[in-house]
Amino acid sequence: MARSPLSESKFRYAFLAWWVIWTGLHALLISYYGFSPTVALLDSVITNIQMLAACWLVNIILKYYLPRKEKYLNILILGAGLSVLVVLNSKWILSSILNDEVLYLSFLSKSIPIRLDMSFLLIVCISFVWILWYVLEEKQEQEKRKADAERLAREAELYKLRQQLQPHFLFNSLNSISALAGSKPEEARRMIQQLSDFLRGTLKKEDEQWVKLSDELQYLELYLDIEKVRFGYRLTTEISCDPASEGMKMPSMLLQPIVENAIKFGLYDTTEAVIIRISASKKGNDLEIMVQNPFDPETSYPKQGTGFGLNSLKRRLYLLFARNDLVITRPENNIFSTIVRIPQTS
Amino acid sequence: MKTIIIDDEPLARAIIKEYLSDYPDIDLVKECNDGFEGLKAIQQSDPDLVFLDIQMPKINGFEMLELIEQPPAIIFTTAFEDFAIKAFESHAIDYLLKPFSKERFDKAMQKWREQTARPGAKNDVPALLETVSHSPGQNQRVVVKIAGKIKIIPIDEINYLEAADDYVKIHTKDGAFLKNKTMNHFEQILDSSQYVRTHRSYMVNVQQITRIDPYEKENHIAILKSGAHVPVSKTGYGKLKSVLGL
Q1: With B59 labelled, which of A33, A118, A266, B197 sits at a CA distance of 20 to 30 A?
Q2: CATH number of the domain encompassing residue A283
Q3: Which ipTM score applies to this complex?
Q4: How many structural domains comprise chain A?
């Protein structure tokens, strides 16, 4: 909601000061025509209090309804209506208070057209001042919204970049390479190759939104090979893929975070060797991918039951499909399963 | 001089081992895969120096240290750069960010030698753990030792805490466990919108409260789902009311 110009004390005082000056001028004008100061002041104050109310009313109306260009006629109509109301009402009040001042009463009747003119001019002028204020206010709000949206977009992009770089994974892999470089240079070279391919994949996938399951699995293998070097015998993986699902499409880079989550969950929750099972199949018209890791129900944090890395996955699928039911997690018999369904569009 | 390496990645251990081959006076007595093994090895062989990774299976490096009464000198090896670095700087001998060079490793070793040669060396592990425990994301669970075994208590499962001399008794649905910490420590690390210090010696999980009854003059007593009765002092009652929005 836009702020009213009268909500700012600077403007409120200026507005009231202007009103006092205007009332004074009005009184001077009346006394110029030879009426007593009491009469002049009464005429001025009674008329202008109503003018003040009219201006305030216009302000309230414009706060909730700001006319577009083609509707400025409405302002003129409103101005005319209000001036008639103000002038006739003033005339009625003044003639009933000052009913014995015969000269004044005839002056009042004769001056009605001028009073109407002046009121109309004033109310319309102030209306346009208000309109100007509210239009500026609206612009400012729009700009702020735009800046906010841009800031959010930038933050999201930065976050995405950070996620892609996966500093923890990268530094630990580099540390493994550093270790291999001394004792097994051949293996170090191979791991550098794998890491490069993986990183190149990360950069390339940026442009592609949808990939074939078989491509995604190939990319996943690169990642798993690196993880296996890091964790040695403790990590084994089994990938099974139903031939019918191989050509199905999925959002790119969706699988790796799920598997990363499963590895973290599995390896950090048990001290034994772990097997991560990944299976893909066709379920109706959907592609279903299941990732399983062992876990220890005794010690795993209850909150991790839904998986720590899975929130961004859910968010991504929601943005793509506007559905919240595509990720299911199921802990049973020390095996934690993450099941993702990917609807096939087109 | 005896040393132990605790890291869950075999290659990460291998590189430290390789770098250590230049130090003939240092005897690598054990390599450990996780915090459990590490804890056992430290207690058995009382090493002079431990290389410790932070992110490890089951219990992390900090949680392992909490369970040792007289921790040895520690050099942390970690790929984390985002938290607790301040803690390392002020209280640990050194920390090596993976991957690290031989030169950097030698520097850490030199630091260790200098500090062990000097009495009153800077290896203030309790202070380190205290600092770490106040960094965000560190307080989802409490690790305690019971009859030689390690028990991990998720924070949510704490019903209430009771002061017991130098310890705090942690009451959960599985029973009570002692932790060598103060009530003030828990008051600082626990979420004050869920855990309220109702009494000088008691802190309660408000989710567990089923009823609050008046008790003697100005005191109250909170009755938990488990049936436990927790004393509530006059000031504690005020705090409880504001948290519960009464």
Answers
A1: B197
A2: 3.30.565.10
A3: 0.71
A4: 2
